[in-house]
Specification:
By secondary structure, the chain is mostly beta strands. The protein has 5 helices and 21 strands. The two termini are 24 Å apart.
């Protein structure tokens, strides 16, 4: 693998895919999006772009088929330098020691601009997103923002991106860039809450209103708020007091138990959250990934859950995670807009040694 830091090398890249993965979470998991009829796994060019949002990193690849920027061919990237995004191959790419290392992958399948060449202010793209365990999932707030940074690097003046992902259209805005750090927001749409929003079995989550209750790994009663922001989340509320109920250690017990709970057949992301004197804090356990330093959709879910529980008022909220802080604007009707920094890391290509280990797939 050859990597080059910064944004100068991006002029010879053509956007079409994004991937995210860090710690490989060993459990086999079934995702709700995966239960839908599947498209064939995409064929992907070997060149990539990598960036992160508060340590939550993603890789962008170009699909080998589909539209290309002005039909330009990436320099040094032969058509034979391709691979198929099978679960095994994705796991290899996302492996931090044997691959590039990442929290997920997005494959940009098609795109069109609203202007001439590299001067457009608007772009439409379609994409697919994959966890490091190889499972396809609905959306990632940070992954989408990384994608926006990638596109904004080679399209001068790009401001608005409409991305079609998992049947929805999500709008992103690039507010600016300084020293390789992009300021990007994503309109995540209207959040939904309740057991049905995350596909929980009837009777698993008790109660008539937020917060609901659910039995924890030792039979203890947990206060929870199920939230969907295009993907499922189960926010576990802490009472805000100092103690063992709000810690990384507590997350390491609750995360794997709830993320793969048999009563939530499609799996769910898990957050441990509290609000102390208006300050929102959260630990994150992502479905198909494990513990992450930050998460865009998790930040939105936490903000919405705390608004619903009456712990904070609607408005412009800041969610503090181990990796840093993201801004989430929550309206009275639970529309959520996520905003924060994205830092570019490198561009490069997968080397023949790694490509030779890939399975052919289908």
């Amino acid at each position: 693998m050859v990597g080059r830091s910064g944004r100068g090398a991006l002029s010879d890249l053509v956007p079409h895919l994004l991937i995210a993965s860090t710690d490989l979470y060993a459990r086999a998991m079934t995702h709700p999006y995966d239960s839908e009829p599947r498209l064939p796994r995409p064929t992907v060019l070997s060149r990539f772009y990598k960036a992160h949002g508060l340590g939550n990193d993603y890789i962008v690849f170009e699909a080998a088929r589909g539209s290309r920027v002005e039909q330009a061919e990436p320099r040094g990237c032969a058509e034979s330098d391709t691979w198929i995004a099978t679960p095994k191959n994705i796991a290899l790419v996302c492996d931090p020691h044997r691959g590039v290392g990442s929290d997920g992958i997005v494959v940009v399948d098609r795109r069109s601009t609203g202007g001439e060449g590299d001067q457009s202010t608007h772009m439409d793209v379609s994409l697919r997103m994959f966890n490091p365990d190889g499972g396809e999932f609905e959306r990632s707030g940070n992954g989408l923002r990384v994608l926006a940074s990638y596109l904004a690097t080679w399209i001068q003046g790009l401001e608005v991106i409409d991305a079609q992902v998992a049947g929805d259209v999500v709008r992103m805005r690039v507010h600016g860039i300084r020293n390789g750090v992009f300021d990007v927001s994503v309109d995540m749409g209207q959040a939904r809450s309740g057991p049905a929003a995350i596909g929980a079995d009837p009777g698993l989550i008790d109660g008539e209103q937020v917060p609901f209750s659910l039995n924890g790994p030792e039979g203890e009663e947990l206060e929870v708020v199920p939230v969907s922001v295009g993907n499922p989340h189960l926010v576990v509320l802490s009472d805000g007091a100092d103690g063992d109920d709000f810690s990384e250690e507590r997350l390491s017990v609750l995360g794997p138990f709830l993320a793969t709970h048999p009563g939530i057949p499609g799996g769910t992301n898990v957050q441990l959250a509290r609000a102390v004197d208006g300050r929102i804090e959260a630990f994150i356990w992502e479905r198909g990934v494990g513990r992450t330093s930050a998460s865009g959709t998790s930040s939105c879910a936490v903000a919405v859950a705390l608004v619903l529980a009456g712990r904070v008022p609607p408005g412009e909220l800041h969610v503090h995670m181990p990796g840093g802080t993201l801004q989430v604007k929550v309206s009275e009707s639970l529309d959520a807009v996520l905003r924060g920094p994205v830092e570019s890391v490198m561009t490069g290509s997968l080397e023949p040694g790694l490509l030779a280990r890939f399975e052919p797939g289908s």
